[in-house]
Amino acid sequence: MKRRILLGAAIAVSVSLSAGVSFADTPPLAVKDTYRVGFAQMESNNPWRIAETKSFHDTAKSCGWELIATDAAGSAAKQVADVDSMIAQGIDVLFLPPREEKPLLPAVMKAKAAGIPTFLIDRSVDSNIAQAGEHFVAFLGSDFIEQGNRAAEWLIDNFAGEKGVIVELEGTTGSSPANDRKKGFDDRILQDDRFEIVASQTGDFARDLGRQVMETLLQAHPDVNVVYAHNDEMAIGAIQALELAGRKPGVDITVVSIDGTRDALQAIIDGKMGVTVESSPFFGPLACDVMKKYAAGEKIPGWVKVEDRVFTIENAADHIDEAY
Ligand code: GZL
To answer: Among the atoms of ligand 1, which is closest to the Cα of residue 259?
Structure first.
């Protein structure tokens, strides 16, 4: 079953609601007019993070949230400490985008022990240790394996060369989107024997590090003709590095990415990027909707899956006005 929930101005996110899981073990949430809500953001170093945080602030008033929002500046340890502080401040519910799958497990366990229901936002934690319906209520986010798979499908369908020599720029080490975008892309692309991944290195989802890593990998692999970046920030950084080296992104090298930021859509319109698979940051309204349903006793699926679109030269100009 798919439902479309209007997020932000014009972004509608279709959410597929699979069978609910029992919540015998997750802390209850009372139906109230106002809630003290913790939103423990991991960092604010890129447009995606900034758009997500704004989405929660923009939702607070209409959802009756007294929002306690923190920013861990890229430190998983600080993100855990921020959650500790929120628990001490007596939050009713926790929205947590865990920077990395393992280091954020203590935050999930402490919230549960304190009787606070947790919703994981945009990234998840190590499912071997913590599960939806027991340690946290649900994960709200995209299917990162599917995103990687769709990026590979686009490349297979649109690459005109004889041989694809791929450099892969990975996201934050140990994060669920980096792990799964790699799995989804690599498993699919290696089924087509035209392609070879000659290097794969983290750029930590950051533009400048993505640029630096691309400069280094370009030295080692001058024959590269495809870049697969786990997010647009690193893809834009890679495009900068390629142009500085005299390469022509979109002409002699194909760039494939994920997120759907404004700069990426512009790069597609300019012919420098081939595709970006959407990964929406607008989680505020969805978090409000799911939290209220949980409080009302409705069954919530362990994974509230956000459906993503694909942006290419055919539709980038139609969507750039709504991009962040
Ligand atoms: C995806 C999110 C990722 C974005 C990156 O849900 O976790 O983190 O794709 C961001 O741009 O840094």
So the answer is: 9
Does 181 contact ligand 1 (Cβ within 6 A)? no
Quick check: CB of 282 below 6 Å from ligand 1? no
> How far from 54 is each of 13, 25, 39, CA to CA, in Å?
17, 31, 11
**Is pTM, for the whole model, over 0.70?**
yes
Q: Which residue has the tokens 């799995």?
A: 183
Same domain, 125 and 168: no
Same-domain status, 175 and 254: yes
Same domain, 46 and 95: yes
In this prediction, residue 22 carries a pLDDT of 46
Ligand 1 pocket, 279 CB below 6 A? yes
The CATH number given to whatever domain includes residue 258 is 3.40.50.2300
Do 228 and 213 meet the contact criterion of CB atoms below 8 Å apart? no
Task: Measure 115 CA to ligand 1 centroid, in angstroms.
Answer: 28
Q: Quote the domain boundaries for residue 148.
A: 144-279
**Do the strands 138-141 and 303-306 form a parallel or antiparallel pair, or are they unpaired?**
parallel
pLDDT in tens, 1-42: 444 444 443 344 455 554 454 445 899 999 999 999 999 999
pLDDT value at residue 25: 87
Nearest CA among 284, 264, 287, 286 for reference residue 276: 264
CB of residue 124 inside a 6 A radius of ligand 1 = no
Q: Could you give the angle at the alpha carbon of 151 between the alpha carbons of 225 and 273, nearest 5°?
A: 50
Distance 206 CA to ligand 1 centre (A): 10
- Give the residue, by CA position, lying nearest to ligand 1 atom 3: 177
Reading phi first (left if > 0) and then psi (alpha if -120 to 50, else beta), residue 61 is in: alpha
| Spatial distance between the Cα atoms of 278 and 243, rounded to a whole number of angstroms | 25
Q: What is the pLDDT of residue 16?
A: 54
95 & 176 share domain: no
In this structure, are 136 and 197 located in the same domain? no
- Same domain assignment for residues 132 and 49: yes
